[in-house]
Amino acid sequence: MTMPVMEPDLDAALLRQWAQAIDEGPFSSLCWGERIAFDNPDSLTLLGAISAWTQRVRLVTTVIVPQLHDPVMLAKGLATGDMLSGGRLTVGIGVGGRHEDYNAVGADPKTQTIRGMAERVAVMKRVWAGEKTTDSVRPVGPSPVQQGGPPLHVGTIGPKTVRSAAAWAGGMAGTTLDLDVAKQNELFDVARTAWAEAGKPEPHLATSFWFAFGPADDARGQVHRHLRRYMNWIPAEYVDAMAPMTGWAGTEDELVAVLKRFADIGTHEVQLIPTSSDIEQLRRAADVVAAL
C-alpha cells in the first residue's frame, strides 16, 4: 500500500494514521514516492517518521531519483532509515521523468540517464560497504542494518533500463497505467532473462497502479481528479484523454479479480496507489488483501 503523499492538505496526524493502519493491516509493504517541485513530504524526512510510526511492514521508496541528491548524503540518509526501521527498508531507484525536479535542485540534466543513475548507485553501495569515498578519518555512517545496504529495486517501464539494472538491482518496482497483464509479463520476462544471464537469483517482480473504490462513475472521477493534480507537468487535455483507461476503479470483487490476474503471471507484489487520502479507501483495500 502506498501512502497518500501526493494528495493535498496532508498533516502529521493523517500520515501517521495511514502508516499505522498499513502496519496493522495485511499489507506486505508501505510505499511512498518522491517529487521535488510539488507539495509532497520530503522522502527521507518521511522515512524517519514512518520508521518510528511502524513496527512490522516493509518500507519501500517508489521511487527515489539519486541524481536529485548528493549520493553520499543519500546513502547516509537511507542507511539511517534502515537503522531506525530495524532493517525494513527497500529502496526503489529510478531515473525520473520530470525535468522540473532536476531544475528545482540544480541537478545536471545530462545525468538524467541510466548511466547517471548507476554511477550514483555505485557510490551508495561503497558507502554502505563502509568504504571511504574521500581521505576522511572515518567512513560515512551509520552502517545499515541489512548487510551491504537496503535491497535496491529499479523503477522503470523500459526494457533497456531493466537489462542495465540487472548489474546492481535485486528486482523491479514497476508500474502499469492500463493494467495490461500481458504487457507487464513481457517486461517481467526481460527481467527474468537479464537476471539469469547475470548469474543472479530470480528478481523480485513488483508493479503498481492507482486505485479507487466506489460506484463506477464516482470512482473513475476520483482517479481522474488525482491524475489531474499529480500529472501537472503534462498538458491537461492529454491527462483527460488517458484518465478513463488509467488505473483501476470499481468494487472489492473486481479488485480481487485484477490482483489474481497479476498473481497468475508471477507478480510478487502489487503496490496499490491511492487516489484519495480518505482512510476508508485504505480499509476497503485491506479487506480485499485479507481475503485473498
TrEMBL record:
PANTHER family: BLR5498 PROTEIN, LUCIFERASE-LIKE MONOOXYGENASE. InterPro entries: Bact_Lucif_Oxidored (IPR050766), Luciferase-like_dom (IPR011251), Luciferase-like_sf (IPR036661). Residues 136-151 have a biased composition (Low complexity). It comes from the Bacteria. The lineage of its organism: Bacteria, Bacillati, Actinomycetota, Actinomycetes, Mycobacteriales. One of its GO terms (cellular component) is cytosol. The keyword Oxidoreductase applies. Residues 133-152 are annotated as: Disordered. Residues 15-238 form the Luciferase-like domain. Keywords: Monooxygenase, Oxidoreductase. This is Luciferase. GO terms for molecular function: monooxygenase activity; oxidoreductase activity, acting on paired donors, with incorporation or reduction of molecular oxygen.
